[in-house]
C-alpha cells in the first residue's frame, strides 16, 4: 500500500531531477531537486517538516471519542488522559476533526504570541452553537471575527471602567449586606455566599439593577446560569444530539437564560444605570439577539469563574493555615509598611490557587489558516480547520517552571520582578 505511491513519487522525481539536470547541467542539482520534490509533495516522509506531535493510538482515539460523545469526559479530562500518556504535544481525531493538545507553557506561549491572529476562532459544532445561541453571536464563541471584535470592544470598555466601581460596591456588600445576614451558629455554605456575592456584583455593578437583592430572584439567576453551563457541555461538541433524550431539557435551559437576559435588558433600560447596557447599543445593526447574548455571556463570565476561584482559595487556605496566618498578620499589623505588600500577597495567593485549581482549565482554538511553529525540540503544524487545545490545567502542574508543582506555595511568585508564566 505504502510502497506503490512511494515508487511513483520516486520515478516522477527522478524524471523531474533528470530534466533539471540536463537543463542546468549541474550534477548536484539533480539530487537536490529530487529531494525538494520528495519533501514538497510528500511531507509525511520528511522528518524535518512534519509535526512532532505524537498521534494517539487507535484504541485511545476510540476511548476519547466515546467518552466525550457520552459526556463521561469533558475536554479537560481528555487532555489529562492524553498528556499523561503521550506527553506535551499529542494529536487525535475528535468527531472527524484533527485536534492537537498542547501541555507545555513555552509552546503555548510561543504559539499564542506568534499566531494569535490566525487563532481567533474556537472549535465546536455549528448545530450545537446555534442551539446555545452562540453561533456568530455574543463574544465567547463568536467565530464571526468582525462581530467578535466589535462586541469585545464593548466588554473591554465596561471592564476597564467597572473595576474601581466594583471595588467600592464589594466593600459595602461585605460590611453592610453580607456580615449582618450571616447567622452565627447556623450552617453556612461558603460557596453559596460567594455565588450570591458575584451575582449581586454583576447585577448591580454591571447591569445597574438592585432587584437581585431578593433572594428568590438571585437563586433563579444562579440556577439558570448553572443549567446553561450544563447545556453548553451538552451541545458544544456532541454531534447529533437530536437523537438523545436530554436534548429537550437542555434546549429549555438555553431558552430560560435567553428570557432571563431579555428581562435584565428590559429592566436595565428603565433604570438607565448601566454603562454596559448603554454600550450594547453599539452592537452591529443593533441586533437584539446579539445584545441579549452579550448579557448572557457577561453573566456566565463574571459569576461562577470568580466565585469558584475564591472558594478554592479559601479551601487551600484552610489546608495551609500558615499562609492564612501570615496574611492575617500582615493585614492586622499596624506597622505594615505599605498596602501594596498586602496586595502583592493577595495576588500571589490567587495566582497560586488558580494554578493548582484552574477554573478555566483549557483554551480552545481553531486554525484559520495553515500554521507552523518550530522550537528547539518541537515542530508543530496545524492545517486550516484543525483544532488546538491549550491544556492550561496540565501545564500549570508541570515541574518546568513550577518546581514542587503540587505544593501550595504563594511565595513562589516573589521573583523580584521576573514574571513566571
Ligand atoms: C478567576 C476568574 C476567572 C477565570 C479563571 C477566567 C477564565 C477565563 C478563560 C480561561 C477564558 C477563555 C479565554 C480564551 O479562550 O481566550 C475567559 C474568557 C472571558 N472571560 Fe474570564 N475568567 C475569570 C473571570 C472573569 C470575569 C470576572 C469576567 C467579567 C466580569 C470575565 C470575562 C470574560 C470574557 C468576556 C471572556 C471572553 C473573552 C473573549 O472571547 O474575547 N472573566 N475567562
From TrEMBL:
- In its keyword annotation, does this UniProt entry include Oxidoreductase? yes
Alphabetical list of Gene3D superfamilies matching this protein? Cytochrome P450 (1.10.630.10)
Single Gene Ontology MF annotation? iron ion binding
Extract the InterPro entries matched here.
Cyt_P450, Cyt_P450_E_grp-I, Cyt_P450_sf
Q: Has the keyword Chloroplast been applied to this entry?
A: no
Q: Name one Pfam family in it.
A: p450
| Swiss-Prot/TrEMBL keywords | Monooxygenase, Oxidoreductase
Give the protein family.
Belongs to the cytochrome P450 family.
Write down the PANTHER family for this protein, in alphabetical order: THROMBOXANE-A SYNTHASE (PTHR24301:SF2)
Q: Give the protein name, as stated in the record.
A: Aromatase 1
Amino acid at each position: 500500500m505504502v510502497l506503490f505511491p512511494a515508487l511513483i513519487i520516486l520515478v516522477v522525481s527522478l524524471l523531474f531531477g533528470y530534466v533539471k539536470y540536463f537543463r542546468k547541467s549541474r550534477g548536484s542539482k539533480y539530487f537536490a531537486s529530487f529531494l525538494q520534490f520528495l519533501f514538497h509533495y510528500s511531507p509525511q516522509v520528511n522528518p524535518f517538516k512534519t509535526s512532532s506531535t505524537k498521534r494517539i493510538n487507535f484504541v485511545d482515539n476510540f476511548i476519547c471519542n466515546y467518552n466525550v460523545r457520552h459526556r463521561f469526559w469533558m475536554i479537560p479530562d481528555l487532555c489529562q488522559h492524553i498528556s499523561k500518556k503521550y506527553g506535551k504535544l499529542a494529536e487525535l481525531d475528535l468527531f472527524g476533526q484533527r485536534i492537537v493538545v498542547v501541555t507545555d507553557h513555552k509552546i503555548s506561549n510561543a504559539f499564542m504570541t506568534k499566531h494569535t491572529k490566525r487563532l481567533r476562532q474556537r472549535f465546536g459544532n455549528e448545530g450545537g452553537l446555534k442551539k446555545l445561541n452562540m453561533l456568530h453571536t455574543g463574544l465567547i464563541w463568536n467565530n464571526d471575527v468582525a462581530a467578535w471584535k466589535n462586541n469585545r470592544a464593548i466588554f473591554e470598555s465596561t471592564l476597564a471602567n467597572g473595576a474601581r466601581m466594583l471595588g467600592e460596591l464589594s466593600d459595602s456588600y461585605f460590611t453592610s449586606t453580607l456580615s449582618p445576614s450571616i447567622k452565627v451558629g447556623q450552617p453556612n455554605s461558603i460557596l453559596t455566599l460567594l455565588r450570591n456575592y458575584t451575582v449581586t456584583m454583576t447585577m448591580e455593578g454591571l447591569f445597574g439593577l438592585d432587584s437581585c437583592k431578593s433572594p428568590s430572584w438571585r437563586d433563579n439567576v444562579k440556577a439558570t446560569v448553572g443549567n446553561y453551563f450544563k447545556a453548553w457541555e451538552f451541545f458544544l461538541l456532541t454531534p447529533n444530539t437530536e437523537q438523545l433524550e436530554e436534548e429537550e431539557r437542555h434546549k429549555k435551559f438555553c431558552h430560560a437564560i435567553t428570557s432571563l437576559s431579555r428581562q435584565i435588558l428590559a429592566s436595565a433600560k428603565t433604570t438607565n444605570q448601566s454603562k454596559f447596557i448603554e454600550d450594547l447599543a453599539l452592537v452591529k445593526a443593533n441586533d437584539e439577539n446579539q445584545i441579549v447574548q452579550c448579557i448572557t455571556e457577561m453573566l456566565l463570565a463574571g459569576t461562577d469563574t470568580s466565585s469558584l476561584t475564591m472558594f478554592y482559595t479559601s479551601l487551600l487556605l484552610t489546608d495551609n493555615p500558615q499562609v492564612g496566618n501570615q496574611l492575617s498578620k500582615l493585614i492586622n499589623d499596624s506597622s505594615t509598611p505599605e498596602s501594596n505588600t498586602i496586595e502583592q500577597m493577595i495576588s500571589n495567593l490567587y495566582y497560586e490557587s488558580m494554578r493548582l485549581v484552574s477554573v478555566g482549565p483549557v483554551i480552545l482554538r481553531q486554525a484559520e489558516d495553515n500554521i507552523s511553529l518550530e522550537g528547539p525540540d518541537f515542530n508543530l503544524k496545524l492545517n486550516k480547520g484543525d483544532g488546538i487545545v491549550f491544556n492550561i490545567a496540565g501545564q500549570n502542574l508541570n515541574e518546568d517552571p513550577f518546581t514542587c508543582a503540587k505544593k501550595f506555595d504563594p511565595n513562589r511568585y516573589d521573583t523580584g520582578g521576573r514574571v513566571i508564566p
